[in-house]
Amino acid sequence: MLLPMNYRRMPIEIESPEQLGYSSIRYNLAESSVTDVIWDDLNLDLRGLVLQYGDHLGHPQLRALLAQDANLGADQVLLTVGAASALFMVHTALLKANDECIITFPNYGTNLETPLAMGCNIKRLELRFEDEWRLDLHKLEALVTANTKLISLTTPHNPTGTVLTQAEIEAVIAIATRVNAFVLVDETYREMSFTTPPPIAASLANNVISVSSVSKTYGLPGIRLGWLMTQNTVLLEKLLAAKEQIFIGGSVLDEEVAFQVLAKRKTFLEKTTTHITTNFAVVKEFMQQQNNLEWVEPAGGVVCFPRLKNLEPAAFYQALQDTGTYVGRGGWFDMPDTYFRLGFGWTNLETLQGGLAGITTALRR
What we know:
Aspartate Aminotransferase, domain 2, 12 helices, about 15% strand
């Protein structure tokens, strides 16, 4: 008998800045993206756009543009309503109650909550601070069984900022292939890697699904545009059916906005890289001066995951609130609150410095 999905709200959503109200936070260091874009700054031309049902796979030119990066065809790309819906469709298309899925942990809540709501047997492939948040392939080997249907990875990783190598991704694919499982790779932060990133994972094998969006790197979470890629034609057809049953198709307005932005993304990314590099240098210097914080320096993205040393978390967060500074506590990721996610890409330099000063004040108190 099929049971209803056991939906529940996640702490990261309940306590998110957009739910609390951006105006209520003086120094917002909880965000996991670059600065949200103002519409007027995009200078887009949407004249003549027909607000009709669009191609069910999504904007053909946008899919072609995305496929070029992975050396895939446009028909191997499916546009989705943000990366969140892509993750939801992948989980519900590949898993059923009691199926095993192995998920790197900590992780963004959606990757865990949907399989959990479905009644899946979730095995956490735990990443440890002491191992510099690196993936342990021996642990993965020990977790995999004949009932494993999906292995879920994130690179660059949210919330730690670690980046998987091509060799690590290929090793995971080989392990999954032996038990006929799929590999899901959330690559939303890929274009914010500090060095040249590995190839898009979906280009490496037939049993891999890559997921991404314009929310984090491009500062466009408000248009709700993401995508998934896979070489597996049977799976893609199933995912297209899921999209059609939930949404029919995507928003042609959102897709056109994303297409015009990504068509000139080289210029866009140059500005983003400069901004991230500047802010990250400030955070790195800040961390070098701390006695009550420790971290694993990130290798990509716009977040890091410091840990409190010998301090009471509740007192720290209360003191931090008094300074007007907001971070993502460890509980957002089902981790102890001795950890917190610090975002350094969303704010301007002045706000970042103010927030870091707030953290220093809270630590002293």
